[in-house]
Write a structure and sequence with these properties.
There is one protein chain. The protein is globular, with a radius of gyration of 20 Å. It contains 11 helices and 8 strands. Helix 4 runs parallel beside helix 5 and helix 8 packs across helix 9. The protein has one domain: Ureohydrolase domain (Arginase, Chain A, 3-Layer(aba) Sandwich), CATH 3.40.800. By secondary structure, the chain is α/β, with parallel strands linked by helices. It has an 8-stranded parallel sheet with strand order 2-1-3-8-7-4-5-6, with helices on both faces. Its EC number is 3.5.3.1. Belongs to the arginase family. It is an enzyme of class 3 (hydrolase). Pathway: Nitrogen metabolism; urea cycle; L-ornithine and urea from L-arginine: step 1/1.
């Protein structure tokens, strides 16, 4: 056996060591990271549309852990950071829940809720798996600090809160002592950007962050972009992978019921292919699906957005557009034909 063959077999073993076929669902009905009501109903709407039944059709071992509950502590306020006490308490509980799900050998599927919840999901993933890489699928970079944000909405700040390189840009944050930045910004790749603030662009350029906007996707195609991103943040195919997927990365024609839509986004087909490729790595340990807001738009808008969310989740967890595998015990059945 050649050295190259041995190396390929070793990489294959490493690449599947995280995959289990077991999924743990966590709902986060949280809306305090932004100001529009309704996004807290996202988990309810996605579950009601048949999420769990659809996942069980994939022959997955599915456990629903319910919704994250928390009590907001009374802490000092921080300038230009809305509802920090709520964000701190909710994400602290969520981080522990993510760690539990991963410890039980399950992939963690978190449905939100606004994008500030990813502070908790990624923190928990890092604490449990140590060496992780994150694909951040979003129209926005979410790289602001309280000093640069125009809105003070924390759902525009999670990447800046999570990464070690930006730790010195923050004041002391009461209630956030449990969360210390442990993720290098070199381990994050953006896909789908098209609404990036000036400060965020400066940070992306200063730190050489892997960031692919819609014009890059138009130039290279979504398939190549996915693998370019993975090659940058996980060149040896050994890291536990996390996808944080904001539904506003899709074009509003595909997913209109979201709080900060931006025209010219991903097609649902591109998003599904992205998730199919992430599934094929066999190292996708955590997925966040956030910013579905059932109180925005018509009944049809909400239906289209929720269905898009479920298609994306299914692709991440093994659904293939080529068709599902034949269940065990059926392969010996004779096929009936009609004349």
């Amino acid at each position: 056996m050649s050295v190259l063959t041995k190396a390929c077999k070793l990489l294959n073993k490493l690449s599947i060591r995280y995959y289990s076929g077991k999924v743990g669902i966590i709902g986060v009905p949280f809306d305090k990271g932004q100001k529009k009501q309704g996004v807290a109903r996202g988990p309810e709407a996605i579950r009601a549309a048949g999420l769990i039944q659809e996942l069980k059709m994939l022959e997955l071992d599915v456990q629903d852990y319910g919704d994250v509950l928390y009590h907001a502590e009374d802490v000092d306020k921080v300038n230009n950071m809305s509802h920090l006490n709520h964000v701190a308490s909710c994400t602290s509980h969520l981080s522990k829940q993510i760690q539990q799900v991963l410890q039980e050998g399950r992939q963690a599927l978190t449905i939100g809720g606004d994008h500030s919840l990813s502070i908790g999901t990624i923190d928990g993933h890092v604490k449990e798996k140590k060496d992780i890489a994150v694909i951040w699928v979003d129209a926005h970079a979410d790289l602001n600090t309280n000093k640069t944000s125009e809105s003070g909405n924390v759902h525009g700040m999670p990447v800046a809160l999570l990464t070690t390189e930006l730790a010195d840009y923050w004041p002391y944050l009461p209630g956030m002592d449990w969360q210390m930045p442990m993720l290098s910004i070199r381990n994050i790749a953006y896909i789908g950007l098209r609404s990036v603030d000036r400060y965020e662009r400066l940070v992306i350029e200063k730190f050489g962050i892997t960031a692919f906007g819609m014009e890059d996707i138009e130039r290279y195609g979504i398939h190549d972009i996915i693998h370019m991103a993975l090659n940058k943040i996980d060149p040896h195919n050994t890291k536990s992978l996390h996808v944080s997927f904001d539904i506003d990365s899709l074009d509003p024609l595909e997913a209109p019921s979201t709080g900060t839509p931006v025209r010219g986004g991903l097609s649902l087909r591109e998003a599904i292919h992205l998730m199919e490729e992430m599934y094929r790595t066999r190292r996708l340990n955590a997925v966040d699906l956030v910013e579905v807001n059932p109180q925005i738009g018509s009944e049809r808008d909400v239906k289209n957005t929720v269905e898009a969310a479920i298609h994306i989740i299914q692709a991440a967890l093994g659904y293939t557009r080529r068709g599902l595998r034949v269940p065990k015990g059926i392969t010996d059945m004779p096929l009936q034909t009609t004349q």
